[in-house]
Amino acid sequence: MNSAGPLSHRRRWSQGVVQQVSPAEVTDLGPGYLEPGLLPVDLLAKAYREALSEFGSAALAYGDDQGALPFRAAAARRAGCTEAQVLVTAGTSHALYLIATMFASKEDVVLVERYAYDLGRKILTDRGLRTRAVAMDADGMDPEALHDAIVAERGRVAFVYLNPTFHNPTGIVVPEARRRALLEVAARHGVLVVEDDAYADLTLDGVVPPSMAELAGYEGVIRLRTFSKTIAPGLRLGFLIADPRTVKRLVHHGLFASGGSANHVTSLAVATLLESGDYDRHLAWLRAQLKARRDALVGNLTGPFEFDVPAGGYFLWLRFAEEARVPAEVTVAAGARFGDGPGSAVRLAYSLNSPDRLAAAGRALAGSWIPSLERT
Ligand SMILES: Cc1ncc(COP(=O)(O)O)c(C=O)c1O
């Protein structure tokens, strides 16, 4: 299923083409990206060819505002909803921006987990919204703290933004009972929930609970999906699922009236993958790749720190009390980027490097804590 990989292509992985390039000698555990060799170049080339041959010039027109029906039908079938509930977006970032524009006014508050996807928060604050962190524990956001925050903000809460499955940055999965408790609090106060479900297809062990949106019957919850983490971020393709009224409101935004569907031709290409079973085969392959990477990292991380082995997604959250010294050959994402909490933490992404490099990075990180312990 894998291709030769973009490193073998003529105009390859370089500054000015891609968002970030790490020096070859550094093992970068910072960004939540896929390793270049995991990006399915040949699969996408085939999918675009098929879409262009099947739809011809219609693939190159402005797409239906809400998104091309073949894509929406395939996405809806997988999610157990109707096409009317699906809106194609240019990924989760775009969807979050759209919701922050259509369902919030300047100075409104968005409630987020104590640790939350930092760039998602940036989209909200760049739009003039305030974010307020709500306490969380190993099972996710605390429902009582959510209640207290809603009451404290007295009608200024536009929505709650949650990432309950393979959470960025902590990797946790919110259990079903906690999901229901959070939904109950939000519904009692009439507060919209925005569920960022970027990693839910990437389970490495076992099964995940139903999405919060499914538990709520897609009422009062907007669920955000993306192919950035499961196929390739360069597609800029995702979709949101909500009740049909909410979708209708969002689709009236000038962005769709003016430009039609986000990434129309890409959505038709991805629709062929969803329909043919290629997406599911690709997911099975990708999960195996990620599992090998997670296990290589976890198997080599021993030291005076704590972590829970993530059951899916891209991230491992390493907590420690001692002052850490990260070795020069490894870079990590500082936990403080995502929020404040007791103790210190770093986020390690196991998506961007090979199992061998991750094993070596794990050993280097494990070794790096020893000097600081010896000093005490
Ligand atoms: C939780 C979460 N949401 C959204 C995104 C971005 O998604 P997209 O590429 O679809 O905009 C990321 C990427 O890091 C993420 O971790």
TrEMBL record:
Pfam families named among the record's database cross-references: Aminotran_1_2
- Signal peptide interval: none
Q: Which Gene3D superfamilies match?
A: Type I PLP-dependent aspartate aminotransferase-like (Major domain) (3.40.640.10)
Residue span, Aminotransferase class I/classII large domain: 45-323
Instruction: Extract the SUPFAM superfamilies matched here.
Output: PLP-dependent transferases (SSF53383)
Give one GO term, molecular function aspect: pyridoxal phosphate binding
- Under which name does UniProt file this protein? Enduracididine biosynthesis enzyme MppQ
